[in-house]
Amino acid sequence: MDDGNDHKRHHCCFQEWMHLQEADLDELLRAKAVAAASSTGSTAELRALVAKNVRHYQDYTERRRVLAREDPPSFFSPKWCSCFENSFLWMAGCRPSLAIHLLYTLTGAEMESHLDEFLRGLTTDVGELSAGQLALVNDLHLRTMREEETLGSRMASLQEEMADKPLVPLARNRGEVSLGAVQGAMDGYEGFLAGILEDADALRIKTLKEILGILSPTQAVDYLAAAKQLHLAVHEWGSQRESTRGSI
C-alpha cells in the first residue's frame, strides 16, 4: 500500500478525532454550565453525555487499531503531532496514570504524601472527592502503575530480542541477506508492536472508565472537559511552537 496514502489516512483519522473532541468539549462545557446554574439538572442526561464521550474514545481507538496494523511505528512517533506533543507520548498515547494525576490536580488532591493521614481521618476535605472516592482512586493508581510497568517490560523485551536475534545476524551479513529476510524481521517486530499498542489503548480506556465510575456524573463531566482542554491545548501549543520556529 502507498506510504503517502497511509500517512494521509492516519492523519485524517487523528484530525477527525481532534475535531470531535472540540465538539464534545463544547457540549460538556454547556452541560457543566447548566448543572451549575440549576440544582434540578438531570443526572441521567449527564450520565448519557459521559457515556457518549467514552463511546467516541472507543470508536477512535478501534479505528486507530485497524490503521496501526498497517504501519505500527508511525503511531509511536506520529508526524501529525508536534515534537512537543510527541514528547508526552507513552506507548503511542497518553500514559494511563497521567489521567489519574489530572484527577488529583483538578480536585486539589495532588498530595500522595498526605494520602495516609486523609484516609485515617486526620483531614476532612480534599477538593470534591470524598474519602471513599480518594481511596478508590489511590487503589486504581497503584494497579495502573503496575500494568504500565508490565507493558514497559514487554516493550523493553521486544527491543532487546530484536537486537539479539533477528537484526544482529542480518546486519553482520548485510551485503548477503535478501530483502525478504529483512522485511520478514521488520514485519515480525511491527506485529508485536501493534499488539503492544492495542494493549496500551485497552489500558487507557480501562483506566478512564474506572475513573469515571468513581466520580459522580457532575464530577465526570468536569473531568472529561478538563482532559479534553489539556489535550487540545498541548496539540495547539506544540503546533504553534513549531510554526514559530519554522518561520525563523
From TrEMBL:
Gene Ontology MF: a single term: sequence-specific DNA binding
Superkingdom of the organism of origin: Eukaryota
Q: Which InterPro entries match?
A: Seed_Dev/Stress_Resp_Reg, TGA_domain
Q: Where is the DOG1 domain?
A: 7-244
Query: Which GO biological process annotations does it have?
Result: DNA-templated transcription
Pfam family, any one: DOG1
Q: What is this protein called?
A: DOG1 domain-containing protein
Originating organism: Colocasia esculenta (Wild taro)
Lineage of the organism: Eukaryota, Viridiplantae, Streptophyta, Embryophyta, Tracheophyta
